[in-house]
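G., the chain you wanted modeled:
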Amino acid sequence: MIKYLGSKRRLLPLLVAVIRSLPGTRSVADLFSGTARVGHALKAEGLHVLANDHNAYAATLARAYVQADREELADEAARLLRELDALPGRPGWFTETLCVRSRFLRPENGARVDAIRDAIERLAPPPELRAVLLASLMEAADRVDSTTGVQMAYLKEWAPRSSKRLTLRLPALLPRAAHGKGEAHELDAGVAAARLSADVAYLDPPYNQHKYLGNYHVWESLVRWDRSEVYGTACKRADCRTRASAFNSRTGIRDALARVVRDVDARHLVVSFSDEDSLARAELEALLATRGRVSVLARGQRRYVGAQIGIYNPRGEKVGRAGHLRNTEYVFVATRDAWQPPALPEAAVPAIAAVS
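Predicted structure as tokens:
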């Protein structure tokens, strides 16, 4: 899956074990699904997953990894990906805007993106097959990009991986889950909370003022293929300026999250947060206490790669270091049922401790 700030890759063993251990769990609504990594893992456990994200690229990943089923699409998708991968590059808007005016990919790989993406548009495949093809293209571009993992900027010098040929691969599709076919939705989290119903609601809201749309605008443009007006050195989409979310606001996130916690139709709530988030731990515990007894698990870990590299100015000169290189990730569980955290092998989830 694509590189992603806030990815729960290292927390997956804990999250899956916690959700599976909650009484009567057959379905999970993931209201901020991002790359769909968590939804994919829960689908692999046989659960009925309802994945939601308001960004088009994230909803597309959810449609590929949660909604699409391997037994129905893998053969056709593999055939089409072989044909698309054989196309010669043909530079267009993506190459000029995101590989020449800005430098997220080398122009020769940008030309391949243009050719493949135009071909997908001409094919006009059904939504799930389209999502699988687009997920493959996103991941192929991600493997040869020249960033630290976010698209607010690109590296001053080309990353070594950027010289490799962009190559399509079949995404890791899963068979239909035992508890029902997955779903992908493209809704505001507040709207999704009011519409979707599941045994467990999993919430992983944005943790600061930086919008995921701005962090991953290249993928949004690749999926929408709308040749948006752009601005700035990074050639961000114009809607990065206009699409606001209360979840990216220190003054707005509490009320927005409180509405989700109040409205979501779920027996249990599981929430990911960290000590860098816009809400303090005590505030979040108070919000969740309205839904039952709150338990908290904590895990110390290294911060994202940009923090390890340091702070640079627009000329590529290092001008500082991040204030700290580690943070604490919390997993909150709110339920009215009797529940104890599951036993976990220390090697699988290091530095986890129950703290409430």
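Residues 107-123 form the longest helix (17 residues).

Shout if anything looks off.
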